[in-house]
Write a structure and sequence with these properties.
Olfact_rcpt; Rhopdopsin 7-helix transmembrane proteins; mainly alpha; 308 residues; 3-stranded mixed β-sheet; 11 helices
């Protein structure tokens, strides 16, 4: 591994250098981040305290909300603070840590979405064996496995980042550290590293997206044999999952499956999947899920009665 590092810190150019627009960035990021924390916290607490939400689907939803919160936290707090500064800097070590945590929780979200699709497939296509196949022990082992897979994926990102020599300039044309903007600052040919990046992150996003779309097509096709009520309930659940998958994967595929070229809209697309999607996920799952809404009402009623 080559370690030729003369740069000790990077300057994050952010979304804008205009002071008035920085205030807008501050307000938008603060709003979405606070909404993400509140929405996902409500889902986490509701699932943990409600016996009615003990099925594997809500077990995975709990970890999706947890990964959403952590994923957004890797980017949003620093961006909020940086928008108040005239010049935002980040040390080399902090930058590497951000790359690691960003890909750790991003890939964890991908894997959990796959687990949720598997859970829906078993529930709809193998209903008689559902509780046997998707028991709590199996679900726990699956979550542990995807956590290990996420660590492996993010470790590869770190290896790729540390193999790049940085000797100046040190201005990252982005609002957080990621391999694509870092490739532009490297003092060597990055063709091979970019191929490895596309084959790692790009393949992960694309293959996972295709797997999820195929699985949901199979699930929706199998619903033709169900009763009208069963079809309606399963359709509501699957549509929610499909919306989440599209919102998260389409921007990621656009960013990570192309050569190391940048477009003006790259940063705005990154804003969408780093800030907006974690904010929208709780809304999608709660507004379209009667069981979660009912559990939240009971939790709120219980809190009010306890206070009285």
């Amino acid at each position: 591994m080559q370690l030729n590092i003369n740069v000790t810190e990077f300057i994050l150019l952010g979304l804008t250098q205009d002071p008035s627009r920085k205030n807008i960035v501050f307000a938008i990021f603060l709003f979405f981040y606070m909404g993400t924390l509140l929405g996902n916290f409500l889902i986490i607490v509701t699932i943990k305290t409600s016996p009615a939400l003990g099925s594997p689907m809500y077990f995975f939803l709990f970890y999706l909300s947890l990964s959403d919160t952590c994923f957004s936290t890797t980017v949003a707090p620093r961006t909020i603070v940086d928008s108040l500064l005239k010049e935002a800097s980040i040390s080399f070590n902090e930058c590497i840590i951000q790359v690691f945590t960003f890909h750790l929780f991003g890939s964890l979200e991908i894997f959990i979405l796959i687990l949720m699709a598997v859970d829906r497939y078993v529930a709809i296509c193998k209903p008689l064996h559902y509780m046997t196949i998707m028991n709590r022990q199996v679900c726990g082992m699956l979550v542990a496995t995807v956590c290990v897979g996420s660590c492996i994926h993010s470790s590869v990102q770190i290896i790729l980042a540390l193999s790049l020599p940085f000797c100046g300039p040190n201005e990252i044309d982005h609002y957080f550290c990621d391999l694509q903007p870092l490739l532009k600052l490297a003092c060597s040919d990055t063709y091979v590293i970019n191929l490895l990046l596309v084959s790692n992150s790009g393949t992960l996003c694309t293959v996972s997206f295709l797997m999820l779309m195929v699985s949901y097509i199979i699930i929706l096709y199998s619903l033709r044999n169900h009763s009208a009520e069963g079809r309606r309930k399963a359709l509501f659940t699957c549509v929610s999952h499909i919306i989440v998958v599209i919102l998260f994967f389409v921007p990621c595929i656009f960013i990570y499956t192309r050569p190391a070229t940048t477009f003006p809209m790259d940063k705005m697309i990154s804003v969408f999947y780093t800030i907006c999607t974690p904010f929208l996920n709780p809304l999608i799952y709660t507004l379209r899920n009667a069981e979660v809404k009912n559990a939240m009402r009971k939790l709120w009623s219980k809190k009010i009665s306890d206070d009285i």
